Amino acid sequence: MMKILIAVGSKEFSEPTLRVGMKIAKALNALTTIVDVGEKTSKFNSKIVGLTQERMDSWEFDRPGIDVLEWAFQFLADHNYISPKMVDAGFPKNTLVHTGGSRSEVFLKGTVCEDVQLILRNGNIIEELRDEVKIRKYDITIIGGSRKRRMAHDLVQYIDSSIFVVNQFNPNQTYRLLLAVDDSTGTKGAVKFGARVAQAFNIDVDILTVSKVDKFGKGYKGAAEKAGKLMGKCGINYQNLYRVGDPSEIIKKEAGDNHIVVMGASSKNPLIKFFKGSKPLKVMEDCHCPVLIVK
Amino acid sequence: MLGFSQSSLTNFLFWLTQKKWFLITMALGFILFLFPTPKGLTLEGYRIIIIVITTLMMIITEPIPLPAIALYVIVFQVIFGIDDANGVAHSFMNDAVFFIMGSLMLSVAIIKQGWDKRIALGIISLTGHKTKNIVFGFTAISAFLSSFIGEHTVAALMLPIGMTLIRFTSQDKQKVRGLSAVLLFAIAYGALIGSIGTPSGGGRNVIMMSYFKDYGLSISYLDWMIKVYPLVLIQIPLISWVLIKSFIPEYDHLDTGVRKLVVQVANSPEMTGRNTIAAIIFLLVFLGWVFLSETIGLGTIALFGVFLYLIAGYVSWEDLSKNTHWGVILLFGATISLGAHIKETGAAFWLAQNVVNLFGNLMNNFPIVVDGIVVVMTTTLANVLSSSATVAVLGPITLNLIEDQIHIGLVTAIASAFGYFTAVAAPACTIVYSSGLVNAKDFLKVGWKAGILSMILLIIYANTYWLLIN
Questions:
Q1: From CA B114, how far away is CA B110, in angstroms rounded?
Q2: Hey, is the C-beta of A46 within 8 angstroms of any chain B C-beta?
């Protein structure tokens, strides 16, 4: 069974991320976890802040982050993602269980997707997500776009799951899926995921093959044809696009702001990726639309 | 590559990025180590300066756990031959460390008593419903309490009161943005202002007291209060005014909020005999500090208070153990050990001489300049470091700057409390920041005004009032 982690941060900015994440979770019937990673507390004052929080409890104040989870609960309830029994009982903040470190969790019985878990963590976002993925072995991590360029790099480099960055998602926009394929090992997974995402959003697919030279090799053509076949089998409308030029630039241009980009992760050595970057990373940093990097 | 899997390489790269400041610090330390010893400084003195620089960098950037920084200090003081193992161990523990340990534990015991609800009633009955008066009341009560029970304890007790008043005024956070900021900053800044008032107001004061002792000087608890408390009283209305002018509250009166707060507090359990005894224990501790601290030490008295709370069953050892930050205690021990060795190796004198050489003429013609330099240096460092660590490291240096060591020592200790500028500068600031109702920019917005005001006030105060009472 697939496992999805959706990282949210605030009611104001995280709705698109949660909307997209839950749509994918529904399509994959995945076990879903929604996490809010709160700000890191200075190590000097961590204990006294914890103690203050205990006092706040006695004045019936929720700890920071509970409001975000409560909002997520309401979103799930409004969109029928959790069972009516759970909705009637309201947000079960009293059953939020501390599971060690800065992590607390609460379980909700899912309807269209498998069970949904809401969790709170505190600390550096990359560290916390990496830890969560490492322990619970998620298949995809879904997160909103960030203005920090380093964030995209760290997500792709260090999180051991596929990464879906819901960048500048507009719910009123009609999207197409841009599936970038080549002869790399990552393409196979990207095509599979691409098909699932296209089904989830009920959208058409542009299968894009980019070559740096005029000629398209066997591997490239084969990958594009295989992807087309799978889309056909799944009943998804698709078209094959062949372009020549710099892959990241072409993908960025073709994607515009009305595509969801799906591509495989780079199979380069981590050291090379760290110093020189990679195609997926460049696409994630530069594109003005949601991007899924499949690992 | 070399038999390493992709995953282990990724883990290694992640470790590198997480520890980059540790690696940069170590590289800088190594480069400094290769440099020749500066003229006039002993080899041990130069090496302790390297340890100080690297330690401060690690405390500021927090790339490794705080106790690991303390261990680094222990190990490298021995390896660099600054002192033998017994000497380093000896320098690690003194009354100031006992005080910090006792004060953190007392804080746990006091917070567990739930005195906040009584304090809330006290504030409201004193200030009434007018917002300006309530802000003044929050600042004044926080300042008064933090002089005796420590700024972190006060902020922890006062935060729920402030937040309840805000919540009862309006549930919509956006509609009480100014009110939230002004009340929460009144708590944090009030606690900071008051913490300078007595030696027991903060670990930094006790560290300075222990340095005075090392230099053969003495200042009693009451003497400290006579010298410093008027500055607390002057700052309270001024800082309240700065807050009101910086964050304009949306409401002139908080009638609804105050009424609901009074009802909520009235519904909470009555004061019991047990509560009274808990208060009496603290009163005993306070009297001990005032009358016995010169004989048996502030730290011993704080620990005695903890002992009483433990045997009376007001707090369990499990609670104390869980909520006391042992790593911080270890780290303060380390910074105090550094301070001792800065002095012993002659590094403090050498650094002070360099400051004197740099500003010699100015310092001779205008003695007030020394205070200015110390205040700016201490405040800056205290805003990026912990205030206690700042005093532990800077104290031995500033005490060598002028002959009147009590004067400059007090200026150092007081200036270290001006942690207004960032959310991490002082525990009180971090606590109100954790509420989520104020953001990091708010600290800068008001911090520079409060900071500059306090710095100027301190310099004027130290050069007028202290001259008068001397």
A1: 7
A2: yes
